[in-house]
Amino acid sequence: KNVLGTELGCCCADVHGSGIGTGFYRDGYCSTGPDDAGRHTVCIEATEKFLAVSAAVGNPLATNP
């Protein structure tokens, strides 16, 4: 379930046309398991401004560099 209590939606199941999804299991969902040391559990829609500020402080989050 997501933070709203509804079912998780697919975040991205085809990164850059690769056929590979996001998330620990690369299935496009923010699901995780005991082997996920990085905690791949967040998926957001961000504005260009947010991505620019994040990159400027050393945390580049954009999937399209």
TrEMBL record:
One Pfam family named in its UniProt record: DUF2237
InterPro entries with a match to the protein in the record: DUF2237
Name of protein: Uncharacterized protein
Lineage, top ranks: Eukaryota, Haptista, Haptophyta, Prymnesiophyceae, Isochrysidales
